[in-house]
Amino acid sequence: MRLDPEDASPAHSQVKTEEQIAVEEAWYETEKVWLVHKDGFSLGSQLKSEELSLPEGKVRVKLDHDGAILDVDEDDVEKANAPSCDRLEDLASLVYLNESSVLHTLRQRYVASLLHTYAGPSLLVLSPRGAPAVYSEKVMHMFKGCRREDMAPHIYAVAQTAYRAMLMSRQDQSVILLGSSGSGKTTSCQHLVQYLATIAGTSGNKVFSVEKWQALYSLLEAFGNSPTIMNGNATRFSQILSLDFDQAGQVASASIQTMLLEKLRVARRPAGEATFNVFYYLLACGDGTLRTELHLNHLAENNVFGIVPLAKPEEKQKAAQQFSKLQTAMKVLGISADEQKACWLILAAIYHLGAAGATKEAAEAGRKQFARHEWAQKAAYLLGCSLEELSSAIFKHQHKGGTLQRSTSFRQGPEESGLGDGTGPKLSALECLEGMASGLYSELFTLLVSLVNRALKSSQHSLCSMMIVDTPGFQNPEQGGSARGASFEELCHNYAQDRLQRLFHQRTFVQELERYKEENIELAFDDLEPAVDDSVAAVDQASHQSLVRSLARTDEARGLLWLLEEEALVPGATEDALLERLFSYYGPREGDKKGQSPLLRSSKPHHFLLGHSHGTNWVEYNVAGWLSYTKQNPATQNAPRLLQDSQKKIISSLFLGRAGSATVLSGSIAGLEGGSQLALRRATSMRKTFTTGMAAVKKKSLCIQIKLQVDALIDTVKKSKLHFVHCFLPVAEGWGGEPRSASSRRVSSSSELDLPSGDHCEAGLLQLDVPLLRAQLRGSRLLDAMRMYRQGYPDHMVFSEFRRRFDVLAPHLTKKHGRNYIVVDERRAVEELLESLDLEKSSCCLGLSRVFFRAGTLARLEEQRDEQTSRNLTLFQAACRGYLARQHFKKKKIQDLAIRCVQKNIKKNKGVKDWAWWKLFTTVRPLIEVQLSEEQIRNKDEEIQQLRNKLEKVEKERNELRLNNDRLETRISELTSELTDERNTGESASQLLDAEAAERLRAEKEMKELQTQYDALKKQMEVMEMEVMEARLIRAAEINGEVDDDDTVLPCLPHTPPGGEWRLKYERAMREVDFTKKRLQQEFEDKLEVEQQSKRQLERRLGDLQADGDESQRVLQQLKKKCQRLTGELQDTKLHLEGQQVRNHELEKKQRRFDSELSQAHEEAQREKLQREKLQREKDTLLAEAFSLKQQLEEKDMDIAGFTQKVVSLEAELQDISSQESKDEASLAKVKKQLRDLEAKVKDQEEELDEQAGTIQMLEQAKLRLEMEMERMRQTHSKEVESRDEEVEEARQSCQKKLKQMEVQLEEEYEDKQKVLREKRELESKLTTLSDQVSRRDLESEKRLRKDLKRTKALLADAQIMLDHLKNNAPSKREIAQLKNQLEESEFTCAAAVKARKAMEVEIEDLHLQIDDIAKAKTALEEQLSRLQREKNEIQSRLEEDQEDMNELMKKHKAAVAQASRDLAQMNDLQAQLEEANKEKQELQEKLQALQSQVEFLEQSMVDKSLVSRQEAKIRELETRLEFERTQVKRLESLASRLKENMEKLTEERDQRTAAENREKEQNKRLQRQLRDTKEEMGELARKEAEASRKKHELEMDLESLEAANQSLQADLKLAFKRIGDLQAAIEDEMESDENEDLITSLQDMVTKYQKRKNKPEGDSDVDSELEDRVDGVKSWLSKNKGPSKAASDDGSLKSSSPTSYWKSLAPDRSDDEHDPLDSTSRPQYSHNYLSDSDTEAKPTETNA
To answer: Is 1258 left (phi over 0), alpha (psi -120 to 50) or beta?
Structure first.
């Protein structure tokens, strides 16, 4: 499973490294091409043609495998893709889409065991039978709920895509499998249905499950498959499997329809092939009883049907296993044993008919009968009829009943219809026998399909359905290595495949082009060739006069099926005439090239070649016997009647039930029964195909039925959305040597090369038959489909639907118009939505009512919509959780208030509970509530009465509706019966019409014969009339001659005979006629020679013109191919360019986002700068204020110092004054007054000082706060500046720290989890041991208690016996002691049971505590897991932020690199300037030297000093300029070195960040693995917890059962004590003598022992208290018994009664399964002698009363 749906798309591929990009660029620069030849293709490099002198249309190629250089045609060269495209999952994603690239990709995937490949919207499968590992249940669940973009190519992906589309659109879906025989179509169909049954599930009644599908597949495989030369287990029928789904997406019902069954294969089949598999399974059956019943113990030596048992023992064993599997499958499908037996009887009867054989026509004077009557007798017995009836049905063709027995089709010829006794057509005995066998098998197969549909149907409501179409593939005996011609059945299967291929073409090409035309979308598809369906037309094309029944053969073209229909009507028609007519319509014409015609003549007689799959698959057919096959065989028609009239009820009941529901499709399509609404709709559609138009007239014709069946199949699936699966044969077993070469020549073009095989491909890749694969690829036209998928807009949606679905991606439009806004102009709304989505213009297109998308665009929009929806749902969940938390908080507050209120009320209640009025109030209040409750009860009663009235009303309405429904159903049944009658009437009329047509045809034939006889007689009569006239003329001439001779002539000619003159005239006339004839003959010969010469000249000219035309046609074809190739390459380049544009568009979007973020950062920096300036100004003002306040503070300090000095001086004066003792009181008072004044002044000064100190402190605080704020602002600013430089490093370090912390936490959590798991395992082990112990203890204690109970019952019985003895004899001491011991044992047993129960309860409480601890540990682990998940999400978000930061840094790095490149360019410019400066320097130095020499010369020559000074100044100026240039050069060199250092630093930093990013990715992957392991372990813990809870529940159930058992035992024990008490009373009545004192003494000893045991600290219980009561009763009875009188005890527990009354009182308390042997009311008294502890082993013996 791939995670990224776009990883295979060239436009949206993964980010490639620089090395990969460099490798691809090098690959494309070398111009790698494929060289196509007849054995495949080879990789090579196309050499440049600029330096080569090659003729036009030639290229030079160098092969890679051997380095050979070849000059080849341009048409033989195709561009090759890069190695990264070798294993693409979608062939439509190839950069260069051509045959060789597609075949290379398929070969690479096939070698890697990747058998499934997407081909645009379709799936391509290569032989799926060899890899069962990819079809496991685990793989199924990987595809569950996924979209097509998220799934790897697989047959499960097709099923999931169809299922998802069905759920989303509520539209029927169909999956059609196409391909040759043996390519794995049926296997893929099986995996499809298994996936749907597993993933979709079924509703509650399990109508369709995986088990039922496997059983159905086994049944159909046995009865419908057989080995052929092309496939060892080939399907010999077509089927439509329909799955109906309900509203929840589960399978509600299913049905299957079958057609085109090869029923004649039972009796006759091609040489080297076998019959259906079920016959071999039945003959290998190991059930001796069944074999005896079917008379299969002794098999015949020969069988005319060729049904012989298997020879090899291992094959027999395998067949026997398959028969057992078949029986199991039939049981699973609900087929009863009688129905199975009926099937085996019919199959065995067919075998015995083949063993019986038939006589030849020459033998037995032409009588038709069986060759071996003993085998025929066995067949008749198995079919439930007599031998005479069977022979009559097969050979005499006499139908039973009084219905019309004429032929029901147009097959009947004139001579056949003339037979009034109904003997039928003139067929041989063997053909009659074969017809009966095929008819029986056809009826059996139809019955089995009906039984299967009965098991799969359901009355549940179904919403939509999914249909899987599986048909036999293309049949070509040449591919299987056979030299025979194909049969008529193989023609039918090939015709069905051609029709499905045409349906694929219509859906893929025609409908798409029509949709583009309707929506005004202009697309150029010039390279797509129009489809030619000549092979389909050659088979089924009907004429406009198809309804006119005439023997006249018109010139209108019609197909082979119609020609067979017509030739069957013509008496004496032959296959040669059929072929001549067929070739006259569809054969090659003069001037046609080979391959343009769908038909070719064969060198063999009665053979012809038909080109299937657009002329890529030529099949040779043998038409011998086709005319006899197309005629109705009366024995086949008698087979249903023979089964319906069978004497065996198991056979007749099955087929009589089907006879009542016969429809017009009987014998054509099986399985039209169904219970669901959708199944009835499909059946109605198929019936409509057979009952409308031409079908209503021709429905009985065998040939036309074939076309109608295929029409029904196509019409059924055309109403749904289609999904195509192309199954290809990787290798054909029979394709070896010459046959393969011939087929490859038919497929390949004439321009392909002939290279030596084996030298151009790797040895490991020679597993595919490339010519065979190329032929299938061309025949399916997948390349054209993929080109249209790439170039067109395969995804489209209606405007309103698109807007409603994707407006969530544009929230501003939703806010603008509202969520459910109504738009008048949908197109404008969609345009606004597309503009907001910012899609590439070439990826979408707007039509008139729809919006169209390129492949993959809609999937990306769906992914964005899912992400946006998940975000919205997350926000909604957060809001909901916040609301719930607030509500919970409010609830807690209310609970707190309620608790306080309750506490307050309880305090108040304590204060008033003793108040008398409160007591009165509490007494009166319930009475008021009683009154209120009575009123409520009355209201409730009234409501109940109203509801009852409503219920009665609804029941009444329901009954009325039920009656109406029954009445309507009755009406429907009546209408159905009337419709059946009308159909029967129509069929009868059709039969009469057929008979009338046959009579008319015979009359036409007779009329033509009579007309020919009449014409012949008329010509003969005309000849005879001419002769008579000539004779009369001669006689009249003779008579006239005699008269003339007598009168005039005879005297002149005495020797002339009579009539000589006329004879001479006649001879002269004859000579003139002969001369004229010769002259005309000569002229004609001369003209003929001239015409022949002109004809030869014209023929030469025509030959030259034809040669020129052929040459121009060849050139035209070459140019057309070249144009197509160039157009394809242009389209590939265009698509590649569009992908680059899409990538550039994405980069531009990222650039715009980066620019916006950069502008926001600049604005934020500007705001920070303004804020910093503002803070600086505020700081200056505050500093000024602080300085002024500081000055005021200093002044106040000086005032305080002055005041302090004054206070000191005043204190000194006060001391001086106080020291003067001699002063008087007046001075003292004055001094005190002054002192008080001074103190007041001091206080005032102190208050002022305090105020000043507070003001100073406030100012200091404000100053400190401002300084701290300034410092903080400065620090934050510096931190921000530093963070902008070091943010990536800090992020990396923080991520590393977090990852380390996560690792530590994960390790701690893992250790804690391991510890918890260990503790849980220990607890589970303890729990299991405790449960085992408890179960053992419970079982042991239960057994012990039951044993004690039985022993107590036995003791009671013995005590009753003792009472009976005491009536007659005095009791013995030994018996009393025995009774006492038994009583003690029962008491001890009861005490032990009570102790065991208490111990068990303690253990169960411990188990409860342990389970609670486990639950707490689980919750803690879940919290830790959720915390880890949150931390993981945070780390992932941080990693994404770091990735974005990294991208920004990379952009900065790229900008720096660009700046460096610009700087380098500037440096180069400066370097050039420097070189120029150096040159100028050298020139200046040269000039300087020249000037110096000139100065010296001038000095020597005593020139003017002023000139010398000017030259020196000029020299100094040049030196300064030179120095400036040197400094400039140094500065530029330092700048270049600094730039190089910056470049190196940036490169190192980029490498470090890349390495850090890789480390972080690896760390994240490790964390994800650990998290996944943690989830798995949590799942394991949850499962173990569920197991522990289940065990706990089982223990609780066991405990409850033990408690119930304990209670029952206690009840039994109480009953025993009651009986003991009654026994005591009885003993008291019976004991009257002094001998009873010993008994009383023993009972007293027993009571004392009990009291001693009671004093032991063993715990108290209810049973002990009851025992104590019983013992007290015994004591009281003993004390009373010492006196002479007999009375009852004080507590009344022991009363005297008779034993009989005692048992009568106990009788109602006994359980139903326990019978008391001492019940005197129901039977005589019995006494039991218990030999063991079990009361089941008691043997009653009758005693005296």
So the answer is: alpha
Residue 1590 Cα to chain centre, angstroms:
35
On the 0-12 / 13-18 / 19+ scale of CB atoms within 10 A, 153 is buried
Asked whether the whole model's pTM tops 0.85, one would answer: no
Pairing status of strand 1739-1742 against strand 1726-1729 = antiparallel
3-class secondary structure, 1656? coil
The highest-confidence range among 174-188, 734-748, 1302-1316, 1590-1604, by mean pLDDT, is: 174-188
Instruction: Report the Cα 1088 to chain-centroid distance in Å.
Output: 78
At 812, give phi and psi (nearest 5°). Answer: -65, -35
Please tell me the distance from the alpha carbon of residue 290 to that of residue 219, in angstroms, as a whole number. 19
Token pair 């969520």 in the structure block, residue: 819
What value does the CA radius of gyration of the chain take, rounded to a whole number of Å? 57
Q: How far apart are CA 393 and CA 1113, in angstroms?
A: 63
Average pLDDT over residues 1650-1663: 51
| C-beta of residue 462 within 8 angstroms of C-beta of residue 246 | yes
Query: Exposed, middle or buried, 1577 (CB in 10 Å: 0-12/13-18/19+)?
Result: middle
CA–CA gap between residue 138 and residue 161 (Å, rounded) = 18
Residues with Cβ within 8 Å of 1223's Cβ and at least 6 positions away in sequence, in order, are: 1217, 1231
Which residues touch 1315 (CB under 8 Å, ≥6 apart)?
Answer: none
CB 433 within 8 A of CB 394: yes
DSSP state of 558: -
More confident residue, 492 or 1209: 492
Give the C-alpha separation, 965 to 957, whole Å.
12
Helix (H) or strand (E) holding 898: helix 857-912
CA distance 192 to 1029: 90
Instruction: Read off the tokens for 1511.
Output: 């030259």
Q: Strand pairing partners for 468?
A: 175, 241
- The DSSP bridge pattern shows strands 234-235 and 116-119 to be unpaired
Does an H or E element contain 256, and which?
strand 251-259
pLDDT per residue as tens digits for the range 240-261: 999 988 888 888 888 898 988 9
Residue 686, CA distances (Å) to 80, 252, 691, 945, 1560 in order: 49, 22, 9, 55, 64
Round to whole Å and give the CA distance between 1016 and 469. Answer: 61
Q: How far apart are CA 414 and CA 408, in angstroms?
A: 14
Q: Under 8 Å CB-to-CB from 433, ≥6 apart: which residues?
A: 267, 304, 353, 356, 357, 358, 394, 635
pLDDT tens per residue, range 1032-1056? 777 776 666 554 444 444 344 344 4
Q: Are 671 and 450 in contact (CB under 8 A)?
A: yes
Identity of the residue numbered 1439: L
Residue 1250's CB is within 10 A of a number of other CB atoms, namely 10
Q: Which of 335-344, 1377-1386, 1412-1421, 1483-1492 has the lowest mean pLDDT?
A: 1377-1386
Both tokens of 104, joined, read 């290379």
CA nearest neighbour of 1557 among 1284, 1296, 1285, 1283: 1296
Distance CA 1301, CA 1282 (A): 26
- 833: helix, coil or strand? helix
Determine how β-strand 464-470 pairs with β-strand 599-601. Answer: unpaired
For residue 454, what are the contacts with CB-CB under 8 A and spacing of at least 6?
A: 334, 673
Tell me how crowded residue 62 is: count the other CB atoms within 10 A of its CB.
16
Contact 1263, 1182 (CB under 8 A): yes
Q: Is the alpha carbon torsion for 1516, 1517, 1520, 1522 positive or negative?
A: negative
Q: 677, 267, 309: which is closest to 489 by C-alpha? A: 267
Least confident of 659-668, 901-910, 921-930, 1213-1222: 659-668
